[in-house]
């Protein structure tokens, strides 16, 4: 997708990268390595001009153990078992707001 939009303005490409990264942000929620995975996405997300969305996700994926990456999608944590903070207001950055 980013390749098709190379000729678009920088702000458009940055917004597109945020959207592309936001979708798999919670992919490993409740699994081992998820905190480091999300932290790396946030860290590299601040440098959107220097990294493509695929590079951000590949860099973050190195923090997820291979056993977790190899699991079938049906074996992942259920949504009910994942801790949420719906009753509390939490500070969030622009990437987290794009995910919500």
Describe this structure in words.
It is a single chain. This protein has 100 residues and is mostly helical. 45% of the residues lie in helices and 0% in strands. The chain is built from five helices and no strands. The chain has helices spanning 10-22, 34-45, 53-61, 66-70, 94-99. The model has no long low-confidence stretch (mean pLDDT 78).
Order of helices and strands: HHHHH
Give the terminus-to-terminus CA distance: 22 Å
Unreliable stretches: none
Outline: elongated
Helix content range = 40-55%
Largest sheet: none
The overall strand count is 0
Q: Averaged pLDDT, please?
A: 78
Please state roughly what percent of the residues sit in beta strands, choosing from under 5%, 5-15%, 15-25%, 25-35%, 35-45% or over 45%: under 5%
- Round the Cα radius of gyration to an integer and report it: 15 Å
Structural class, from secondary structure content?
A: mainly alpha
User: Helical stretch count?
Assistant: 5
Entry summary:
The chain is mostly helical and 100 residues long.
Topology:
Blueprint: H1 10-22, H2 34-45, H3 53-61, H4 66-70, H5 94-99
Helix pairs in contact: 1-3, 2-3
Question: Could you list some keywords that capture this structure?
Answer:
mainly alpha; 5 helices; 100 residues
């Amino acid at each position: 997708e980013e390749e098709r939009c190379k000729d678009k303005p920088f702000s458009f490409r940055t917004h597109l990268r945020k959207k592309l990264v936001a979708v798999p942000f919670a992919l490993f929620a409740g699994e081992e390595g998820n905190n480091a995975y999300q932290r790396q996405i946030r860290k590299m997300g601040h440098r959107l001009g220097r990294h493509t969305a695929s590079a951000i996700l590949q860099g973050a994926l190195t923090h997820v153990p291979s056993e977790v990456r190899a699991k079938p999608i049906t074996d992942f944590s259920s949504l009910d078992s994942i801790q949420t903070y719906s009753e509390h207001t939490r500070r969030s950055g622009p990437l987290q707001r794009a995910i919500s």
